[in-house]
Amino acid sequence: MAERVNVSFFQELMAAVAEQGRALLPKALFGEAGGESIEVLSRALMSGRGEASGVAIARQLLNQLKKATSEERLQFFRFLADDLQPNPAHVADAARAYLDYPSDKTLAKLQKASYSPRLEFFRRLNLAAGATAEIVALRSDLVRHIKSDEALAAVDADLERLLTSWFNRGFLVLRRIDWQTPAAILEKIIEYEAVHEIRGWDDLRRRLDPKDRRCFAFFHPALVDEPLIFVEVALMREMPDAIATVLDGRRPEDDAPPTTAVFYSISNCQDGLKGISFGNFLLKQVVEDLARDVASLRTFVTLSPVPSFARWVDRALASGSDVPISAADRQALSRLRDPRWVEEAAKDAPGTDELKSALMGLAAHYFLVARSNDDRPVDQVARFHLGNGARLERLNWLADPSEKGLREAHGLMVNYRYDLAEIERNHEAYAYDGTVAASRAVRSQLKPVAKPKGLSTMPDLLALPGTGKAKKGRPEETKP
Amino acid sequence: MAERVNVSFFQELMAAVAEQGRALLPKALFGEAGGESIEVLSRALMSGRGEASGVAIARQLLNQLKKATSEERLQFFRFLADDLQPNPAHVADAARAYLDYPSDKTLAKLQKASYSPRLEFFRRLNLAAGATAEIVALRSDLVRHIKSDEALAAVDADLERLLTSWFNRGFLVLRRIDWQTPAAILEKIIEYEAVHEIRGWDDLRRRLDPKDRRCFAFFHPALVDEPLIFVEVALMREMPDAIATVLDGRRPEDDAPPTTAVFYSISNCQDGLKGISFGNFLLKQVVEDLARDVASLRTFVTLSPVPSFARWVDRALASGSDVPISAADRQALSRLRDPRWVEEAAKDAPGTDELKSALMGLAAHYFLVARSNDDRPVDQVARFHLGNGARLERLNWLADPSEKGLREAHGLMVNYRYDLAEIERNHEAYAYDGTVAASRAVRSQLKPVAKPKGLSTMPDLLALPGTGKAKKGRPEETKP
Amino acid sequence: MAERVNVSFFQELMAAVAEQGRALLPKALFGEAGGESIEVLSRALMSGRGEASGVAIARQLLNQLKKATSEERLQFFRFLADDLQPNPAHVADAARAYLDYPSDKTLAKLQKASYSPRLEFFRRLNLAAGATAEIVALRSDLVRHIKSDEALAAVDADLERLLTSWFNRGFLVLRRIDWQTPAAILEKIIEYEAVHEIRGWDDLRRRLDPKDRRCFAFFHPALVDEPLIFVEVALMREMPDAIATVLDGRRPEDDAPPTTAVFYSISNCQDGLKGISFGNFLLKQVVEDLARDVASLRTFVTLSPVPSFARWVDRALASGSDVPISAADRQALSRLRDPRWVEEAAKDAPGTDELKSALMGLAAHYFLVARSNDDRPVDQVARFHLGNGARLERLNWLADPSEKGLREAHGLMVNYRYDLAEIERNHEAYAYDGTVAASRAVRSQLKPVAKPKGLSTMPDLLALPGTGKAKKGRPEETKP
Amino acid sequence: MAERVNVSFFQELMAAVAEQGRALLPKALFGEAGGESIEVLSRALMSGRGEASGVAIARQLLNQLKKATSEERLQFFRFLADDLQPNPAHVADAARAYLDYPSDKTLAKLQKASYSPRLEFFRRLNLAAGATAEIVALRSDLVRHIKSDEALAAVDADLERLLTSWFNRGFLVLRRIDWQTPAAILEKIIEYEAVHEIRGWDDLRRRLDPKDRRCFAFFHPALVDEPLIFVEVALMREMPDAIATVLDGRRPEDDAPPTTAVFYSISNCQDGLKGISFGNFLLKQVVEDLARDVASLRTFVTLSPVPSFARWVDRALASGSDVPISAADRQALSRLRDPRWVEEAAKDAPGTDELKSALMGLAAHYFLVARSNDDRPVDQVARFHLGNGARLERLNWLADPSEKGLREAHGLMVNYRYDLAEIERNHEAYAYDGTVAASRAVRSQLKPVAKPKGLSTMPDLLALPGTGKAKKGRPEETKP
């Protein structure tokens, strides 16, 4: 008898544990067998009965969402957008009360009345074990639908706010990624690498295992095997001027200690965390850790791509552009149309010097003078590093002759340098005036015709002032 | 030369690392040496420069707060209350716009305008390593000041909302506490135990180490050595009717497997997390884990205190009370005034039966009939377990003859039983009607005169309906 | 001043820590710079000064051995063989004293006098951090030299005895290998797999990651990233008759739980641990763990190769063999000479049945009747499993059509079954009489002409008695 | 049907797993229920069937030994002593063969014939999970019986040899003990502390938790919660001259970094590992680790007890002693008989100077001149540190006024100093000539009359030569 009871007890428990959870669900939620709809479950979760069976409902709902078709998920997002809204009458009442008599109390009531129930909804959804990762995945799905359905933007705004709170830097854990890391994480590194593709496990090993290579990632405790962002670092003896010197296996023969930490790839991993910035925290933490562990390091630089340079060059060359390009330079640049130009440039064929000079000049203009509509540099990667307080250190000709490198940037790569003595100053100048910190070498590559007025009178300035007011605030999430 | 640079570089870094952080702080924040004020730092943190030096400012501010006097901290809380408010003009504008034309967009603007900057403030404060624990500690300090300064309640409301988000159950980790647990955590268990005091390490060992004793706690990844809540469990062969049978060292001689898991102590640990409920999740998780690991378990009960019973008895006996007490019972209860009554009752002295009958009758009334202003049971612990779906299983006479047990409850303890087959039903009935689930045995102890009308006509009901409408929602945080 | 001292102190320490250790070495050990010879260091290690500087000497010696040429290492082994011997005069004296008066004391002296100083030598060598792995590597080198230099066998015997003591099963740790395992270990699994080659990381993942695949390995605490032996297991619904059904990705569509654990690959990893048996312990431990974790399992079998079957068939077919083969079978078997036989057999071409019958008959003879010189089964893998108490359950035709499978066993694979109810009986019968436990099905495949006398009179026996006395003792280390 | 089989299968397995193991044992081992005798099991373990059921037999035997009475265990030890011996006839044959023709082969046969079967017995016993700790415990029991039964010494010799192999330094793991250490280990620290008693958990915390206190222990992977030896360290600003300055809670007010690591307690934990030395390895490892982690450390010293000083003083004062003591000193020393002498000395009562001078003079003699029969220093602790290469740095008057400190050493404690620059030299001099390295200060406290001849002629020597030949070899295991 007791046996029977226990079996039933255990089975019920197991039903719950086995993530089916229906044993714990209010019976009313189920029509036909398995017929609980996503919307019914969503309403149940919000109903307030949640405390007793909330975990089970949340789990059940997440399971249904995982099995759902794209169309069903879209319906779910629309339900969130349309139905999980503050009660308009309550908002209106509270707004009127506040206008009548602004006070702590009427403000609190207004905040409460206008508080989005979606925040509470996702908070309850997160009760289930493993929910956080699934919520992040939901958002990456949601983002894809926004273009076609603007009303979903409000759902996304709530979700971004919630995830910003949950993924606060204080909750992130920095972990070194190396050859002792579980394969389940390493395969994510291969998959998420967004800058210089990792070609399988041998290539991965070459980037992680040698004692002069490092990789670090931020993790969140609730996303066990999922890196949020990672950076790959090479410990070298000088600032590299081409990606090949970082990625190939060659090393100096002697054992002299490394002096230069080169950040050559930073990749964000989670589309569902779009808009939440980790990169600046990651870089600073890694700089601190490396400086402590490798006493010989003196220099911290990147070797970064220039993702929109080629597109910008096209526009600059187009008629109507206000980018000043001399006829000679224009002539030299026309070689770029010949796909063989790289080969020939590598052989230093006639005309190479001219092409290099023209292209580097344009590059200097691209970084130092050109601005997008928001009066900030055109280049996403530049915005990220300059916003962090780095300075543009060097332009590297023919640094990435890969198909992607040529297509995006005519082979150009650049170094940004993190010099602790000027990080704060650079950041402030960039944030308030849009000033781009750049080395004298880079500034000297700017063609005279392009120099903004007055520049020649302040030859010792390290940084170029922007042409106007940059908006302050968080740099957008970008990738080097 | 390079050496010199590096030394300076490393020193600056170390300054930052060593949590002094001033090297990274905008110079303007400092007047005289060490003279950066809490308010100046707080404004700097909110200023938006935060991205470059936010971590350092947050760390510096937390350090200053730790060193601050109680008065200085109060000033800080007042600064938060007064200065970190939404801009009233913006709120008013947005309120008017919404009233003029309620839409997704005007709602979003209203939400944004009325959004409390304190939430952002604490989010930035949490950038610093170890900040979460310090913020929780700040709140436990803040709570103490609210009584004397009502304006701080708004700060607390923001903080509670934020901590509710951060300490979502999905982020909590259940860990077993046993004799393999680090001493740094064990001493917290001794310190935080709130129900049956732990008298030193030997007493602790008796509760953790034997194979028929368990202890589980919830932890948050950002509060490394700090349990949030923990429960102590005894695996027994029957439902115990006195705390001594749980706490003393005696055991049955044979090796028969345990059938009954007894939750005899649940303690919340962090005053700074007041109002954020973990107990129901903890109990459910532990029931699941125990049922899986100890196959012989069939029954899950508590042995719980009745913290406000004695106080309620006093009021019931006072003139003007509407609790019906017969003259004979009143006579029997008068013995409680004699401090020796326990001794005599233990010896079964004349009059003991009468006292027991009277007291148990009152206890049944206390649980089944009496209600507080919110129309829920008077007893905090009862609210917690009944709200979780448990049923009141047994009243135990002379179950806790300790000084505290006598003072608070005339020695009474009770068992609540978690029976999976009825948890959901009990919870729903309690949430919607205030119905108290109770065993027939408990109901039969209710004196006839006290029974609500109609009760005798439904002898098979397991639960007593409440006398009115209970408010639905989360049970208050309570301790057994 | 103090500063100076400390710098020097720290430098000396670092010198030691940096595994150069010369600072701690007796000066006499060094002639010219770096000129400490392996022999000089070896003598120093044995000299008894060892207690003060033993760790440093051991580390230095191991470093030198790592850098040594093959010839230098051979010299080192010869030094061990020739010079690290018991003193012959002492041995002779002790032998005489024992013969004069055998007693506890004279025996103890004889043991001491004849005790090999090499055991003490390796014990001291193992003082250095990381030494154990290097000693194991040394032995795998030593073993290669034995063939050409018999005197080294004595060194190997000592080393085997020592490693047998160090790698006692009580010190081994069983760890599951899965997709959470560090890459540094996984690449060893790929490298060491000796039965069915693992073709890269994707293939590895298919063997480790699915929830119906398992892999377990023994580790020794002193060999951190080095598995000693590992077994790959498939959880299936029936005993497989071909390796393809294990290795390909297909699965049953429904979710019915697995009933059969199939051990399809066991690989020893360390040549330096040759002769030290782990396989039987590993299998038993894994059977226990799986039976506990996967409640639906009822059957534990292998799918094993038959590594010397093809070679034995060649001998059986040769003139002078005493294996009875009918003319028809001989005719059928001649098809094996045509490399296309597999293809045709797969298509069930004419003659396939005859070939199968002949080959299976020979296989039954190979396992049940044929014996090697030591009167045990010819097959190494069979010796291992039969010695462990398994029974030969089934012969599988065309089970491994890989190049290796055809070359070694004409495609034959077999299942051994571990049936707890008869493990002990099978083991004892095998150990004492050489009896081969086999299923009735296998026995029935034995051609009548080949059956040993009297067999037909005991049709119910599960096992065939051997033809004579098997030597008892540890089965040799073998691989399935 | 399959169900039934599985239940039985699982039950059998569980029987084995539950360490009862009888299901796997050869039936012949059991007479009546539970009646398997220790001797029968021991013989079964040695019988060679061991491979199939060895683990189960070993576990069963260990269980029986744990339940056995002291008398039964003694019988077991006698069985090992008497029955598990090499076969005398085989030994005699092999001895004769060796004498006839000494060669590698005859030597190997002699080694094999005289090899103690007890080594193999314990190797097999160690197959069971957790066996190593139980074998160590067995030896601590065995050691107690040796005095009364000399034949057991041979068993102990085998066991010591085996444990020396198993507990090789290469297998030990150094772990820091602090407030994060599991309570199960910390309570062992309290229990095993052998020098300055730890009075409960608060006292323990004072020794482990402050940032200027350290504790390190060696562990063996097979003895999970059992430290083998541990050392307590105080990081101070000068070499302490009394134990109170180490143990009390007072600290300097400023934050100046520590310069001096003081080893004030080393305790061996396992009686069963008697004779196996860990102390020297522990000290060296800890010195290395501390020097690396705490850059400000310049000095490594002990504050050590002098355990047999008082006993030696009694003998020195007795008639017939050859220790030269002047009449005045003898008079001063007579005060020691008055129990109040310490109090008075603390108050600097008249006569204190004379007493101090006399006692310190004797102490210098005790360390520098007195020798035991083996021509080494009388003091066990001195032997340990001097053998490790330390030098006697200072004699501390009234350094330990505890009851034990007065009883054993009239309050005397000493500092030994580990100076890397002279460790090797000191060790060699001590090992070969018995020379005691001592500071000039200590040497100057030697009374002129006691100085060995010629000493005055070599005032610059740091060390006193011994009076004869010390035996070289491992210092005995001693405790400071």
Automatic annotation (TrEMBL), chains A, B, C, D:
InterPro entries: Malonyl_CoA_deC, Malonyl_CoA_deC_C, Malonyl_CoA_deC_C_sf, MCD_N, MCD_N_sf
Domain Malonyl-CoA decarboxylase N-terminal: 85-167
Domain Malonyl-CoA decarboxylase C-terminal: 170-419
Native organism taxonomy: Bacteria, Pseudomonadati, Pseudomonadota, Alphaproteobacteria, Hyphomicrobiales
PANTHER family (alphabetical): MALONYL-COA DECARBOXYLASE, MITOCHONDRIAL, PTHR28641
An annotated GO BP: fatty acid biosynthetic process
UniProt-annotated stretches for the region Disordered: 450-480
Protein name: Malonyl-CoA decarboxylase
Superkingdom as given in the UniProt entry: Bacteria
GO MF term list: malonyl-CoA decarboxylase activity
Organism: Hyphomicrobium facile
